[in-house]
Amino acid sequence: MIDRTEILKELKGILQDFRFLLQRNSFQILKYQGEPEPHELDLVWKENWNWGQKQLTGGKKEENAPVRTAPKEQDRNFICKLCSDRLSAIRHFLIKGRKKVLVLHYTGETQTGKPAYVKTSPQRIFRTAEAEDLFDRMIQKEFGFSMREFYYQEYPACIFSQDRSSTADWKTRVENCEVQVKDTIEKEGIQGIVLLGTSAALVYGKEEASKRMGKTFEFLPGIPMIVLRSPEAILASEQKRKSLSGKNESSEFLEAKQKEIEVKEGVLSQLKIFHESVKDRI
User: Fold this and answer.
1) Residue 61 DSSP SS3
2) Neighbours of 95 (CB within 10 A)
3) By CB count within 10 A, which of 66, 139, 146, 193 is most buried?
4) In total, how many domains does the chain have?
């Protein structure tokens, strides 16, 4: 007789594993040995598949056979093999604009113990609409056009297990992923780079990234790069002031308001310096 307790216990384990995979958007796709990876296959639609008809050409090679196409530019991180410990590649890791400025950022989770985050929309750049709205306002104010005129690239371009990653692991990943950044610079004619929050911390470490905040360097010879706070970090100061809006006369509110002004004015002044260095080239 089947033991229902054992069945329920096994089912519970399966559902717990499934929840874990859903949170991380990580599903192992099994394949036979020797088969190519699923994401490396190109599926080509043919107008006439001749279902059920026998091959009558006697082994003769079909004329006008479909030619294998290269992966889309926006999906080239899927075929990258430099980081063997990745969980998955980030879909739409590169969003193209018209102005030749590349904003490097990272929406993946890096802090141990926090739930994984996966973008659900190809149009999403940062984690929240509020962060995008804030960054758009700042770009509009300094550059005079929408933030979506810039290029945006995930750096690194893949999702990793934040609970099993060391600082050295992240350092290696961004070093490996530099090839993707250089590829975009070359193919798109990028003339300037903005390195945001999390990506900067992964490249330099938190302490060094903090020292470099607001300063301009060269990513490559002739390609200026500025290190800025992430929109989420800037948004935090705005949200703190809003949370105290009912206490407009309190010292806590006035302190939060002053902090918000300092943070935003600081970022705007940094953007102005960067704008001066690239305005004639983008």
Assistant:
1) coil
2) 17
3) 193
4) 1
pLDDT in tens, 7-59: 787 787 777 767 766 666 655 555 555 566 665 666 665 555 555 555 445 55
- The reply to whether 62 falls in a domain is no
Alpha carbon distance 239, 144 (integer Å)? 25
In a domain, 27, yes or no: no
Residue 45 forms part of a structural domain: no
Please report, for the domain that includes residue 153, its CATH number.
3.40.470.10
- What is the Cα–Cα distance from 38 to 29, expressed in whole angstroms? 8
Cis bond before residue 156 (omega within 30° of 0): yes
In a domain, 54, yes or no: no
Q: Which of 214, 169, 164, 219 is nearest to 191 (CA)?
A: 219
Residue with tokens 């980030």: 90
Backbone angles phi, psi at 152, to 5 degrees: -130, 130
Residue 218 and residue 193 in contact, taking contact as beta carbons nearer than 8 Å? no
Q: Please list the rounded mean pLDDT of every run of 10 residues in the chain (282 residues).
A: 72 73 60 59 58 51 50 76 92 93 95 84 88 94 95 96 92 95 96 95 93 91 93 87 78 86 91 92 88
pLDDT 10s digits, 221-244: 999 999 999 999 888 888 888 888
pTM assigned to the model: 0.72
Buried b (16+ CB within 10 A) or exposed e, 140-176: eebbeeebbebbbbbbbbbbbebeebeeeebebbbeb
**Is-contact 194 149, C-beta < 8 A?**
no
